[in-house]
Amino acid sequence: MPSADATPILQIDTQYGGPYAGTSVEVSPAAADHFNQAASKATGVLPGEFVPFTPGEHFSIACPTTPLARPAFIAAYQHLRAVIDDDHEIVLSHYPRLYSTGLLDPGVIRGVPTYIPKARMPVGFFGRTHQLEVFQGKDRIAGPTERFFHSQTSGVVFDQIEDGHGRLVIEMRGDLTPLARRGEVVFFTDPAFGEPTGVVLLGPDGAATPIAWDLLGWDRVGDTTLFLEWVAVGVRPSGRSAVLEVAFARAGTGVAAALYSGHTRDTAFRVDATVLPAAR
Amino acid sequence: MTDPGPAQAAGIKVRGLTDVRSVREILWPAFLEGERERWALDYRQEVDMPRLRRETGAQSPGERPDVLLVADPLLFARLGVVAPVDATAEGPRPAAWVDRENRWVSVYVQPIVAIHNAIYSQPPRSWLELAATPWHGRLVVEAPARMLTTGPALAELAAALGPDVWLPWLHDLAAGGLRQVADNERAVLEVATGARWAGLANWNVARRVRPGSPVRHVFLDPTPCVPAFAVAVDGGTAPELGHRFVRWLASAAGQAAVRRTGRLPAADIEVPPAETAPVIPPGVRTAVGTADWVAEPDHWVGVFTSTFGAETDLQAGKLRD
User: 3-state DSSP call for residue B124?
Assistant: First the structure.
């Protein structure tokens, strides 16, 4: 359905629960610089596509959508605004984001999390549930829906991603209850690593449980590929902390991040994560 | 026992470097065994010393903590709100840790160990080796000028290494790109990821890693041991109870409880009891009370600031919950 100015209306993809919002993320100076440098060197960056990252704590508002041609999606994105509690209006195009393109077709975009500095919101906003609506112009495309906006300590805390031989190791703690209930962890991993070849959840007793995963898309700026976005499904930890090991076929250094309903520290949103050659 | 009075019935407010579990689940319940009331404890782990000094120096007495567990007691005593405590400390203490005015008492001791990522490196073998080229750009420590653990540890090494070696060694560490962070937890975190290959941490944090972690620790010779002090604050909500808690921490019962937290009680540092397993490996000496950093911290802060640079945007570790 076209809007009044002929920009198509974005359709929310509900496969993973519709719009997700409130994940807390620490963007390090190195991570901000990494994405800003990539954008400055990329070709084919469309007007309105990229907004520079700044270091600091951010929260995300994400709109997974049915795939749409890249120029049309970027044009539509300029008209998106999130309204929280009928009180706070956030124009999403003012804030940094990385567009996620189709797995097989880089010409379409399937969604995008936008990263908004936490300082934009009032004191006491985080660590609570809020009502979220997303509008494209005057058209409401998502909500109203309740979402929890995380503080540094609420929900799952993704503490660190460790380098390893043929793998990366992700350590989580905090309140793992929502993770055990839904079982999903979103990953961003560098093209240098290739696609994941195996995921296991390590229990407190060292037992390894194989975990399935779905590839979601390749996040790009212009025609530069930044990372593979994918989701581990069926992650159901017990106890107060959990460890995921993700195997990759290729050694390399680059982006690795893990996110879910909670807080991702800068040590779990790395641009220098390293998969070392697999141990013989 | 002095009647604590109705204003004290709610309990006391304690702030400090010690981890939450040790204070809430081990020390406080042990203290209550000798009390008539089940006093409540308001404890928060705090490594941001400027923030803690602001809280301690609050004009409104009710906002002040009653007891502090800190590494740099003089900086708090200067606020003019620290009360002398007539505590009889169990066991001998190094003279450099004892205050003639009884404003602080050493409670436990932290050995400072070298940590390393076993995927990337062999363990460092000596203090001097840490300044060598292979470690350049690879080391991370809690900022020495904060005088929490790394600063006191480096100060303790001054006598052991000798002044002609120590200061050039510090400059070599700085020239090698030593990374400074807010606390030991962050240092361990950065070594765990592989972003840094080695660093320093107190023993208690260094060994608190998950099974399978690539982080290992080693006791270098000599191993500096850094005390944590208990300080009673005037003008809190429960001064009598606060004083009793400080006295108890220094006592035989308090030191036994400290031992149960997995730490080295201060009473054990000069004469380790035979029944306790040795923490410091045989053959490794300790550097204990060899420098005046407790009574004269400004000198050491000046040395570390001029050597390693001012603190900017230090990143904290896993202390937020």
Answer: coil
Shortest Cα–Cα distance, A161 to chain B (Å): 6
Average pLDDT of every residue of chain B: 90
- Please give the pLDDT value at position A64: 82
A200 contacts chain B (CB < 8 A): no
Closest-CA residue of A relative to B314 is A28
| Residue showing tokens 């660190």 | A160
Contact A160 B193 (CB under 8 A): yes
d(CA B238, CA B186): 34
Is the peptide bond between A2 and the residue preceding it cis, with omega within 30 degrees of 0?
no
Q: pLDDT of B242-290, one tens digit each?
A: 999 999 999 999 999 999 998 889 988 776 666 566 788 888 999 999 9
Q: Report helix, strand and coil shares of chain A as percent, to nearest 5.
A: 15, 50, 35
Q: Render pLDDT for A183-239 as a digit per residue (tens, 0 to 9).
A: 999 999 999 999 999 999 998 777 899 999 999 999 999 999 999 999 999 999 988
- DSSP secondary-structure letter at A8? B
Is B81 in a helix, a strand, or coil?
coil
Q: C-alpha distances in angstroms, B22 versus A48, A179, B112, B170, B262?
A: 52, 28, 19, 33, 9
CA B285-B250-B111 angle, to 5 degrees, is: 25
Q: How many residues belong to chain B?
A: 321
* B210–A163 CB contact, under 8 Å: no
Q: What interface predicted TM-score (ipTM) does this complex get?
A: 0.88
**The tokens of B220 are what?**
């270098």
Say yes or no: B164 contacts chain A, CB-CB below 8 A: no
Q: How many other CB atoms are there within 10 angstroms of residue B149's CB atom?
A: 29
Contacts of B77 (CB under 8 A, 6+ apart): B103, B104, B231
How many residues are given for chain A? 280
- A221 close to A51: Cβ distance less than 8 angstroms: no
Rounded Cα distance, A176 and A182, in Å: 10
Q: Which residues of A touch B205 (CB under 8 A)?
A: none
Q: What is the distance between the alpha carbons of residues A38 and B70, in angstroms, rounded to a whole number?
A: 45
**Residues in contact with A123: Cβ distance below 8 Å, sequence separation at least 6, in sequence order:** none
Beta bridge partners of B109: B227, B264
Mutate to test the interface with A, among B21, B193, B196, B205 (most CBs of A within 10 A): B193
Is the separation of the CB atoms in A137 and A79 below 8 Å?
yes
- Report the alpha-carbon angle B228-B230-B236, nearest 5: 140
Distance from C-alpha of B56 to C-alpha of B235, rounded to nearest angstrom: 9
